[in-house]
Amino acid sequence: MRLGYRVFLDAYSRFSEDDGWALASHIALSTLTCLFPFLIFVAALAGFVGSERLADVAVAALFATWPEQVASPLSREVRHVLTEGQGGALTLGALLAVYFASSGVEALRIALDRAYGVANERPWWRLRLESIAFVLVGAVALLTWALLVVLAPLVWIVLCRHIPGLTEVEAPVTFGRLAIASMVLIVALLVVHERLPARRVKLAEVLPGVALTFVLWAAAGVAFGAYLTRFAGGYVTTYGGLASAMLALVFLNLLATIFVFGGELNAASIRARRDGDATRGG
C-alpha cells in the first residue's frame, strides 16, 4: 500500500509539472472540434457500404455512455448535419474530415509523450499519417459495433424461435452488450497507450493507467449526470444558447484529465519498478 501511495503521489506531482491541466483542456477542445468531422466520415463510410442507418446507430453508440444532458444536444445536431447534408457532399467532405479528426489523435499523442518523458523525433508527416490510420481504424471499429447492434436483435429473434427458453434471459443479453462495449473501450485505451507514444511500452506497463481511466470514466459519467440533474439550469442561465457546447466541453475536460493522469500513473509505475530493480541490483 505504501508503494501504491508513493506511485500515486509521484503521478500527481508529474501531472502538475507536465502541465496536465492545460493538456487536458487541449485534448477536450480538440475532441469537441474533431467530433463532427469524424462522424461525417463515419456517415460517408456507412453510405459507401450501402447502409446509412449504420451511421445513426454509430452516433447512438458513441454517445451511449455520456450523460443525457450532454449527449442529447450533440447527437441531435450531429443527426441534423448528417440528414441535411447531401451524400456527395459528405463523401467529398470526408477527405478533409479525416485530416481534421486526426488532430484529436495528435492531442492524445502529445499528452502521452509528455507523460512518458519522451521526445517524438519522427517527421510530422509520418505522425500525421499514423493519426489518420487511427481515425480510419476507429471509424471501421465504430461501424462494426453499430453493425453488431443492428444485427443482434435479428439474431436473437432467430435463436428464440429455435430455443424458446431464451426469451426469459433478457438481462444477460443486456449485460453482454455492456460487456462488449466495455471491452471495446478497454482495447482502444490499450492500443492508444501502446502505439501513440514515441516510447513503446509493454502491455503490463499500461494496465494500471488503463484500469484507472476506465473505472474513473464510468464513475465520471454517473457523477456528472447526477450533477447536471440538479444544476444544469445554472449553465443555461449563464451561457444561454451555448449551454450544450459548454456542458460537452466541461465533460470532455473531465474525461481528458482522467486520461492524462492515467498516462502519468503508468509512467510513475514504470519509474517505481525501475528504481526497485536498481535497488535490488545494487
Note down, in words, how this protein is organized.
- This protein is mainly alpha-helical.
- It is 86% helix and 0% strand.
- It has helices at 2-17, 20-48, 53-62, 68-84, 87-116, 124-162, 170-195, 203-239, 243-281.
- Helix 5 (87-116) crosses helix 6.
The average pLDDT score comes to 77
The first-to-last residue Cα distance is: 24 Å
Q: Strand portion, in percent? A: under 5%
Question: Structural class from helices and strands?
Answer: mainly alpha
User: Can you tell me the overall shape?
Assistant: globular
Instruction: Extract low-pLDDT stretches.
Output: none
> What is the helix content?
over 70%
| SSE string, helices as H and strands as E | HHHHHHHHH
Q: Output the radius of gyration.
A: 21 Å
| Total domains | 1
Secondary-structure blueprint:
Elements: H1 2-17, H2 20-48, H3 53-62, H4 68-84, H5 87-116, H6 124-162, H7 170-195, H8 203-239, H9 243-281
Helix pairs in contact: 1-9, 2-3, 2-5, 2-6, 2-9, 3-6, 4-9, 5-6, 5-9, 7-8, 8-9
